Amino acid sequence: MVIKSFPLIMILILFISAFTMPLVNNNKIIKTISLITNFICSVLSIFTFYYVQLYGNFKYKMGHFDAPWGIEFSIGTLESMMAILFTVVSFFIIWYSLYSIEKDIKESKVCLYYVLINILIASLLGIVFTNDIFNAFVFIEVSTLASCGIIVIKDKKENVKATIKYVVLSSLGSGLVLMGIAFLYSITGNLNMDFMHSELIKNWMNYERIILLSIGLFTIGLGVKGAMFPLHVWLPDAHSSAPTSSSAMLSSVVVKAFVLLFIKIIYRIFGTDIISNIPVLDLILILASIGMIMGSIFAIFQKDLKRVIAYSSVAQMGYVFFGIGLGNELGLAISIFHIIGHAFTKSALFLSVGSMIEKAGKNISDLRGIGKEMPITLALFTLGSLSMVGIPILPGFLSKWNFALASIQSGRLYLLTIILASSLLNGVYYFPIVINGYFGQENLKEKVYMSKEKSIKELIPIIMLMGMMVCAGIFSNYIIKILLIACDQMF
């Protein structure tokens, strides 16, 4: 059926449109191309998800050769859900950028920006869909270059420094991933994930040290790219200095693609029989727990609002790795659910923060009384903050609640204190921003109601992302049920 080719068509649409944009000498048309192509990909990803729910997982062969000689895509519930998430979130971020990007970068670089955005989304989809580990590495490299491009394009001293740091550390991570692939290829003779798993299951007892080494290389390599504590050091500078739409893109989708690949490597290539005999998940759990606490502590001491949100991402990625480290089905399913909830929330938070910074300034002290001048924007920020802290019904609460259940299920009750402490720390840096924004006679003095509020057309993308965040909370039982079925196939 033609639907089976939709994953490839999505990637081709984005790549081809990216390379045709420079031929168009009109920024409005270029923006429209980027927006429309991402909308088309969103629709195709929804059809792909629907097809998987009706007929089950499928493989799509690239070219004439069957696996393991040829490259194939492996599409299941997890891949199709991530495709929807990445394309839908990207669509609304691009929509927001239509009105704001010229405020962050020079007009002459707008075309290049959207070329990089489409290449970035295409490569992230490639990471999600591919069943070939070297093909995934190629997409990793493409996405890294595009990510660096959408940071440095602002062309300020701080962006150049942040990009250099990101390039150096990301190159180190890529090198480690490539070494991990080489070690696995040397003992399996394959690059297809399914065939690698089959060979490892038969021979892993003979190559325990090589397997331990390769898992370590993948963990550090993808840990750098996925912002696992303490390998996150590139993230605060990159996310806080980039254009607002770039910050939203990096935080909501880019780091998530690398974590998804890590999950596929751990559970599809190695499998539970092997990783249960290696203490890698325990190590991930320890680092994730520290990240949940330290990310929030670092956020508390920041004065720049974007850096607060950036360090909050370090803490939230700690939750994602926490679920992986628990090593049970519920933990893994909630880890993926947290990826979904966090993508909607953090993209909307970065966009609302970008709007407030544009009108008031980047320091937290500049935002006193902003609730009177920009009541809708601050209301949207407040809603996202409540989810991050863990207020009931919202996805942040449901993630933490289910992480607690998964911790109990794994027999490690002491982990509940980590979840509780992290939630309290989230409140310490989010609530003062909201309270000082809305309340205090001194804060509101001489402020004019709605004087700095953005137009409704600029607010719609943020409102839509927040709406989807609320829907993720309302329909969490359905989403988690689907994820549990998908994760069951990995165990």
UniProtKB/TrEMBL annotation:
The regions listed as transmembrane in this protein's record are: 6-24, 36-53, 73-98, 110-130, 136-154, 166-187, 210-235, 247-267, 279-301, 374-394, 414-439, 459-480
Q: Where in the cell is it found?
A: Cell membrane; Membrane
| Start and end residues of each NADH:quinone oxidoreductase/Mrp antiporter transmembrane domain | 131-424
Q: Which UniProt keywords apply?
A: Cell membrane, Membrane, Transmembrane, Transmembrane helix
- Membrane topology type, per the record? Multi-pass membrane protein
Query: What's this protein's family per the entry?
Result: Belongs to the CPA3 antiporters (TC 2.A.63) subunit D family.
Q: Which protein, by its recorded name, is this?
A: Proton-conducting transporter membrane subunit
- Source taxonomy lineage? Bacteria, Bacillati, Bacillota, Clostridia, Peptostreptococcales
